[in-house]
Design a protein that fits this description.
Elements lengths: L1 H9 L4 H23 L22 H26 L5 H30 L9 H24 L2
């Protein structure tokens, strides 16, 4: 959500981009809900180990694939707009762009790691990077806000 709002702001509220992000986000959320609700497994499970073990379905890999595509669209929109429209920028726009791209690239890397873990390793490890990904979102969003505040105070 934060990534989409930042991209919309970077595009100065362009209606086509706003509607496109909203539509694409709704389609992505609908697909994620469908994958969660559909009882069939998209990737066959291995044997379930004995005992009490937390196991999530292997179809979480597909959830992360959908998320990855959305994040890459956001990254493309930001980079395209930066090089197309913002040749000479103020320090605040520079910080917003630099930190935003860094944020998205980091999140894409963690999402890729989640896809690899979910697709290659046994299902017991499929949730291994969920908490680090959520934590990374929070830390990077906070860093962006701190950097924007510091930049605005120095103006």
């Amino acid at each position: 959500m934060l990534l989409a709002v930042r991209t919309r702001a970077f595009w100065q509220g362009n209606k086509r981009v706003s509607v496109g992000l909203l539509a694409y986000g709704c389609v992505t959320i609908g697909a994620i809900i469908a994958i969660i609700v559909i009882p069939t497994q998209l990737i066959p499970e291995g044997t379930i180990p004995p005992g009490c073990v937390m196991i999530s379905p292997r179809n979480t890999t597909f959830l992360y694939l959908l998320l990855l595509v959305f994040e890459m669209v956001i990254l493309f929109l930001m980079v395209y707009k930066r090089f197309r429209s913002y040749r000479e920028v103020t320090s605040i726009v520079h910080v917003m762009y630099r930190d935003g791209v860094f944020y998205i690239v980091c999140i894409i890397l963690v999402t890729l790691a989640n896809i690899i873990v979910g697709g290659i390793f046994p299902s017991q490890f499929s949730d291994l990077l969920d908490v680090p990904q959520i934590t990374l979102h929070s830390v990077l969003a906070s860093r962006i806000m701190f950097n924007l505040r510091r930049t605005s105070n120095s103006l």
